[in-house]
Structures are given as C-alpha cells and as structure tokens.
Amino acid sequence: MVNDEFFDLFEGSFTDLLSYDEKYTFLAGAGISMDAPTKIPSAREIVRTMLELCAP
C-alpha cells in the first residue's frame, strides 16, 4: 500500500538508488519463521528495535 502523499514516483533505474561504495542488507521473506519454534522477528520489528537502540 503506497500513500502518494508520502512518496514520490521514482522514474530512474534500480541501480540509480544504490551506491557502489555502500553496504546494504536486504530483509526479505514471507514471515514463515515468525512462529514457534524459531520466533524470528519480522523485518519491521528488527528495524523498529534498531531505531530505538540507535536513536532513543
């Protein structure tokens, strides 16, 4: 769900978004590992926790 009030349409290529000098981590998945026994947090929870720890 994209809200046009917050996002502008990007008309460049995917490679224009990324710098070759930077390192990236992509969090992708279907959420199947969120249930027991693994209980791995969702990407949203990971990012939220990282932000809370780095910028309280």
Outline the structure in words.
There is one protein chain. This protein has helices at about 15, 45-55. The protein is extended and about 40 Å long. It is mainly α. The protein has one domain (about 15-55). About 30% of the residues lie in helices and about 0% in strands.
Number of domains: 1
Specify the structural class: mainly alpha
The secondary-structure element order is: HH
- Poorly predicted parts: none
The fraction of residues in strands falls at under 5%
Number of helices: 2
Global Rg: 15 Å
> Termini, distance in Å?
28 Å
Kindly state the number of beta strands.
Answer: 0
What's the SSE blueprint?
Blueprint: H1 14-17, H2 43-54
Name the descriptors.
mainly alpha; extended
In short:
By secondary structure, the protein is an all-alpha fold.
